[in-house]
Design brief:
The protein is of the alpha/beta class and 173 residues long. It is 20% helix and 27% strand. The longest helix has 12 residues. The termini are far apart.
């Protein structure tokens, strides 16, 4: 028997109550939100439950919502996959813009190590308990986080590019 969204929702709601919320179908993926302080418990439950079997972390990434309420300015998104039933789910956990921090899941899924480092590097989201949380692609000296919306898209002082090569001339800018 195929794993249904209602089974996942019922098990999570029964176990975690209001810490798991906003269940919805987005495209072909079942999605829900989890309170940031419960994320490790929920992911461990999804992995270890004999019926659910979400043993594979497909992706982990960050999102910046600068115009949202200060308590929901960042989100960490987890994609998990149950290979037995070929079922995928998306989990969102919202974080404060003042101190974007969430517990690491690198102790649950080893592949989360690099994904969390990349999310830290680009968004400045701190993964508490991560064994080696440091920049992975950007220079260590960099003080900003380039995927945040406040980061400028282009350096206005650049002298090494010619707008003509990009289809931009003073007449059509």
């Amino acid at each position: 028997m195929a794993l249904e969204n209602t089974q996942i929702q019922d098990k999570l709601s029964e176990t975690f109550g209001e810490s798991v919320m906003h269940f919805r179908q987005e495209g072909d993926m079942f999605t829900f939100d989890v309170a940031a302080d419960k994320i490790t418990s929920v992911i461990l439950f999804l992995k270890n439950d004999e019926t659910l079997n979400f043993h594979f972390l497909t992706d982990l990434c960050g999102i910046h919502y600068p115009d949202s309420d200060v308590n929901e300015q960042f989100a960490v998104v987890y994609h998990l996959h149950n290979w037995i039933e070929n079922k995928r789910i998306r989990i969102k956990s919202f974080l404060s813009g003042e101190n974007p921090e969430i517990k690491t899941i690198s102790n649950i899924f080893l592949s989360a190590n690099w994904m969390e480092r990349e999310t830290y590097d680009f968004y400045g989201i701190n993964f508490a308990g991560h064994p080696q949380l440091k920049r992975i692609l950007n220079m260590d000296e960099m003080v900003s986080f380039p995927m945040r919306k406040e980061f400028p898209m282009e350096d206005s002082g650049r002298t090494d590019k010619d707008d003509r090569f990009f289809g931009r001339t003073p007449s059509n800018c």
